[in-house]
Design a protein that fits this description.
single chain; mainly beta; five-stranded antiparallel beta sheet; four-stranded antiparallel beta sheet; 46% strand; globular
C-alpha cells in the first residue's frame, strides 16, 4: 500500500527511511557526522560505520573486556551504562607509538593506496580503512584512534 507523506526538505537534504518510518533528514555530511541513530549511522559511508556494544567505565569504555581509555575530560556519568560505540573505518590507524588496541587480523584487502582489514572486537567484525599497504602475511595490527 502506498501512502503519500508531505515532508519539508531543503535542497541537498536526504531522507533516511526504515520500514516507511523517517529516521533522519539532513545533508549527507550531517547524516555522516551526526547520525540520529544506529540505522542512519550504518547507512552513510562505505564501508559503513562499525557498531560495537560497550560498557561505560570511569576512564572510558569496556569493549567486551578490552579497555579503551577516553582521556581527559571523559564524563561517564553523563552517559548510560551501556552504549553502542560507532567507529568509522577511516578513523582507525596503525599505531606508531603505544597502541590503543592490538587485534588479530581476519582479512586483508590491499586496494592500491589503501588497505581494508577486518578483525573481531566484542564478537563483531570490525573493518578498518588504512592508508598504505598491509603485508599479506600480517596477522596482527596495533590500532590507534585516527
Amino acid at each position: 500500500m502506498l501512502r503519500e507523506i508531505d515532508i519539508d526538505m531543503a535542497p541537498g537534504e536526504f531522507l533516511v527511511l526504515k520500514g516507511g518510518v523517517v529516521q533522519q533528514i539532513g545533508t549527507p555530511q550531517e547524516i555522516y557526522v551526526t547520525p540520529a541513530n544506529t540505522f542512519a549511522a550504518d547507512f552513510m559511508g562505505a564501508p559503513p560505520r562499525n557498531l560495537v556494544p560497550a560498557r561505560m567505565t570511569g576512564a572510558g569504555l569496556d569493549l567486551g573486556g578490552t579497555p579503551l581509555d577516553m582521556g581527559p575530560g571523559w564524563d561517564a556519568a553523563a552517559l548510560p551504562a551501556r552504549v553502542t560505540l560507532g567507529i568509522r573505518p577511516e578513523h582507525l590507524a596503525r599505531a606508531t607509538a603505544a597502541p590503543d588496541l592490538v587485534v588479530v587480523l581476519k582479512m586483508i584487502e590491499n586496494t592500491g593506496a589503501e588497505a581494508y582489514v577486518s578483525f573481531d572486537l566484542t564478537g563483531e567484525t570490525i573493518t578498518a580503512r588504512l592508508s598504505g599497504r598491509i603485508p599479506e602475511d600480517a596477522t596482527a595490527l596495533s590500532a590507534a584512534a585516527g
